[in-house]
Amino acid sequence: MVVVLMGPPGAGKGTQAVRLAERLGLAHVASGDLFREAIAAGTSLGRQAKGYMDRGELVPDDIVVRMILERIGRPDCAAGVVLDGFPRTEAQAEALDRALVAQGKQVNAALELDVPEAVVLERLTRRRICRNCQAPYHMEYSPPAQEGVCDRCGGDLYQREDDGEATVRHRLQVYAEQTAPLLSCYRQRSILRRVSGTGEMDEVAERLVRALGRGAA
Q1: Domain for residue 217, yes or no?
Q2: What mean pLDDT do residues 98-107 have?
């Protein structure tokens, strides 16, 4: 089974994709994680991706597609995958379809997390990350015990460049212009399901499972 999890930046795709993958027994593949790993490793693709990410722009399709297709070709994805943050453009979706057809697979469901813009801004602009262990914090919902210091390792907390308000607004605009058209494509294929991404994490997780026609485990 191949599930595409969609939604604007800050919709909670990362958190919910992990939960959904565990619930369904599938691999979780996140484009953002792959980019950050490549950037940390200093690879050529990582260096190329960093400039785009820092500006809140989409990484070019050729870079994204190479990373994702290599990842979903690994053995742990044989039973299926929950894709988080990919595809983001129609060209990426077409590349994904071609790769899946070659494996005798297809996208079985596209789930859209629907979150108002005001909520997205509040979530992202107040998010902080540990420089050492990458632990995430939110200054309202999950603040550190000591401001600016990671509870886990004592590292410094910082705001990612792409979480600044101006960049977040730009990311939302980019999403609307380049990613939202994918919703129409998946809707025409009758595999799109819209799910509210607001509320408690457990509530959102259950909505996603129900949208796939799965009952509570």
Answers
A1: no
A2: 91
Whole-structure pTM value: 0.79
**Average per-residue pLDDT in the chain?**
90
pLDDT digits (tens, 9 = 90+) for 155-180: 999 998 889 999 999 989 988 888 87
Q: Which CA distances in Å does 180 have to 2, 87, 185?
A: 20, 11, 9
Distances (CA, A) of 77 to 40, 81, 175: 24, 6, 27
Residues involved in catalysis: 13, 88, 127, 160, 171
Mean pLDDT of 192-211: 94
- Tally Cβ neighbours within 10 Å of residue 186: 20
Q: How many CB atoms within 10 Å of residue 72?
A: 22
- We report the CATH number of the domain holding residue 88 as 3.40.50.300
Task: Count Cα atoms within 13 angstroms, Cβ side, for 39.
Answer: 14
For range 28-40, the mean pLDDT: 88
CA-to-CA distance for 72 and 78, rounded, in angstroms?
A: 8
